[in-house]
Design a protein that fits this description.
Chains A, B: This is Helix-turn-helix domain-containing protein. Chains A, B: It holds the Pfam family HxlR. Chain A is mainly α. Chain A has 6 helices and 2 strands; from the N terminus they run H-H-H-H-H-E-E-H. At the A-B interface, helix 1, helix 2, helix 3 and helix 6 of A face helix 1, helix 2, helix 3 and helix 6 of B. The structure holds a DNA duplex.
DNA sequence: GCGCATAGGTACTGAAAGTTAAGTACGCAC
DNA sequence: GTGCGTACTTAACTTTCAGTACCTATGCGC
């Protein structure tokens, strides 16, 4: 079994283990996507909403609040009228960006393999039925 | 802005982009936890359920099916009575394990920083109110 | 032959998440 | 002075998630 070190270092059985808590945060449907777009240089609410296809205004605001509350994104409100607010990654947010890089690379590299696995699974199901 | 390369290589705006699809799969609440436990050497339904605290039988079955359908976990049914089924990581599953390793390391390393950020945010909220 | 164990499947139900649509408050161009 | 744009907030509605409870089939101990 060729598994990396983290199999020993994280214990999901432990309710106090940070894995549950933070996995819920960054395993969220939109969080990483929003951080990605901010990292690409889009800092304003409207810009982000237009870049992240399919997100509603409510989810964007809600997710940005959660990211801000956890120190991953900094919110700068210029307190002008009309409103002008900018979001930027904090150093902590940037470090998370680096940590999930390999995962995104895996997604890109492995997508074809996953599609093949799905097709094979569907074929097995059809055959069994 | 010190962001890694993947900010340019993945485009969440594109509905065809694999990021959405696979992020939903592995960003699931239980998938990574279950793969972790299987990687630790627990291969049977009951073993996994006892290791992953808080999961119900239904969610375990459901998640294992999804992982199997996507080629991350292999299911071996020995077709005996009483039933004996074993789950193991496929090579694809092991490669995903490696890819999320840095993320788990980040979680362990950054948890204190996140807790501090939360406390600071709560203090700001209390002050504003 | 009763109940327990295994590894699930299925249906019902409540909770949570997310969507749409509308409202807030102001300035600016037309 | 009508409508647009910004960055939200709120309410009502819908969809999805997840847990409980009960069901399959079989051999074992008693």
């Amino acid at each position: 079994m060729d598994m990396p070190d983290w199999v020993a270092s994280v214990d999901p059985c432990d309710a106090d283990c940070p894995s549950r808590d933070l996995l819920d945060l960054i395993g969220d449907r939109w969080s990483l996507l929003i951080m990605l777009v901010i990292g690409q240089g889009f800092h304003r609410n409207g810009e982000i909403r237009r870049r992240v296809g399919g997100i509603s205004q409510k989810m964007l605001t809600q997710t940005l609040r959660a990211l801000e509350a956890n120190g991953l994104v900094a919110r700068h409100d210029f307190a002008t009228v009309p409103p002008h607010v900018e979001y930027r990654l904090t150093p902590l947010g940037v470090s998370l960006g680096h940590a999930v890089g390999p995962m995104f690379q895996w997604i890109e590299a492995s997508y074809p393999a996953v599609l093949r696995a799905r097709a094979a699974y569907a074929a097995r199901q059809a055959q069994a039925a």
